[in-house]
Amino acid sequence: MMKAWEKNIRKVVPYVPGEQPNKERMIKLNTNENPYPPAPGVAEALKNLDPDRLRLYPDPACTRLVDAIAKQKGLKPEQIFVGVGSDDVLAMCFMTFFNSEKPILFPDITYSFYDVWAEEFRIPYETQPLDDDFNIRKEDYYKENGGVIFPNPNAPTGVEASQEMIEDILQHNQDVIVIIDEAYVDFGARTAQPLLEKYDNLIVVQTFSKSRSMAGMRIGYAMASPELIKYLNDVKYSFNSYTMDQTALDLGVASIEDQAYFEETLHKIIQTRERVKLRLTELGFTFRDSRSNFIFASHKSCPAEELFEKLKEKDIYVRYFNKPRIHNYLRITIGTDAEMDEFLSEVENYLKESG
Ligand code: PMP
């Protein structure tokens, strides 16, 4: 029987994250984490953490981390907003900027948190179909709307939208906020950051989770005009003024200060990705060019769900989405060379067995 108070409960369909199994021996290629450890400076900073610091609230303005990111990006500190992972930053952006009666627009195949936030914050939205090759069709974003958001490269497809396309979309959307979610941009795509000089309605969001191997620390940031960053800070201070903890602030600074290590791991992951692409092609898989740390692949004689389950039996985790148009694809995060060799050899075995 329905309880009287139940009618006052906000019921939402939650975001379903990839599995986080906790096995001693597993190959985890399902949530786009980085297989390499964070920069050595992060381990050093962790060792040197003074527990007495934990007695005090952290700096709500996150000044040291904001300054370090601004310096590295060649922007002013007033142009940076940090949060607890880019999920937190994006949710703040939804709350702050998407308050129109008109629907916000995003692709039909994209990061599955967007519709969750829209529902949660009661923001009307309309998804726009990708074309047959999983490209965004820019004309779909020229209609009247309450804001635009998409990842670049897109997730889970890995497909990059060109700078020209992004600029065309910005040209047609000067009266609303346009957010480019660049969670995967460091793996060989072009950032929209230079467009910030020209468009004061643009927000570029990036994260430490993927390219900086810091998913466990939850650090993300937005880059935008000082005016937009101020609006974000006002909302943050009214909702969750102390969300970034002291440890995240300290370790984030240590990570951003080691650019050489960052570039070295990116290079390794991109090299591995290109090698895996070649082998998957030989094995009969098809995929679009990926500019991210994952490959979104399908095989015409190999049902994705079955392969997903077979790999899982071997403790190899990839991501399967039971969704229209992409139910025959697997998203495979790029791990170390050894992990990818094991993955490829299991795929090969499966293909041989299934004839
Ligand atoms: N955007 C996209 C497209 C993602 O795939 C993810 C990772 N799940 C995020 C944002 C959020 O990443 P994080 O909160 O770890 O920064």
UniProtKB/TrEMBL annotation:
Residue span, Aminotransferase class I/classII large domain = 25-345
N6-(pyridoxal phosphate)lysine modification sites are: K210
Keywords noted in UniProt: Amino-acid biosynthesis, Aminotransferase, Histidine biosynthesis, Pyridoxal phosphate, Transferase
Name the EC number(s).
Answer: 2.6.1.9
- One Pfam family per UniProt: Aminotran_1_2
Reported cofactor(s)? pyridoxal 5'-phosphate
Per the record, the domain of life is Bacteria
Q: Which GO terms describe its biological process?
A: L-histidine biosynthetic process
Q: PROSITE patterns per the record?
A: AA_TRANSFER_CLASS_2
Q: In which pathway does it act?
A: Amino-acid biosynthesis; L-histidine biosynthesis; L-histidine from 5-phospho-alpha-D-ribose 1-diphosphate: step 7/9
Q: Which SUPFAM superfamilies match?
A: PLP-dependent transferases (SSF53383)
Reaction catalyzed: L-histidinol phosphate + 2-oxoglutarate = 3-(imidazol-4-yl)-2-oxopropyl phosphate + L-glutamate
Question: What GO MF terms are annotated?
Answer: histidinol-phosphate transaminase activity; pyridoxal phosphate binding
| PANTHER family found in the cross-reference section | HISTIDINOL-PHOSPHATE AMINOTRANSFERASE, HISTIDINOL-PHOSPHATE AMINOTRANSFERASE-RELATED
Q: Which protein is depicted? A: Histidinol-phosphate aminotransferase
Provide the species name.
Eubacterium ramulus ATCC 29099
